């Protein structure tokens, strides 16, 4: 099971006054991680539809060990420090991906306009 893909979820609270700094820090982190952290596949940052101070950061990894190795590195701590300084609360969860379903919706056909 060590090679099973994984999803890491961070549920964080960012005060409105820190939102701009949080998003700027996330921008710096996401490009560096996507460009060179082994095992990283994709990430997202999401804002709650009902609570503007509640945020969700998710990332998908080839294996949980890839994330854990990066998380233990000094580079990780230095890179995420500016973002973490924006949090007033944070919770981290780690999951192995058990199943995944993709949409089978057909591609939309362009609508032709009469000449």
From TrEMBL:
GO terms for molecular function: monooxygenase activity. InterPro entries: ABM_dom, Dimeric_a/b-barrel. PROSITE patterns: ABM. Keywords: Monooxygenase, Oxidoreductase. It comes from the Bacteria. Residues 6-95 form the ABM domain. Gene3D superfamilies: 3.30.70.100. This is Heme-degrading monooxygenase HmoA. It comes from Micromonospora echinaurantiaca.
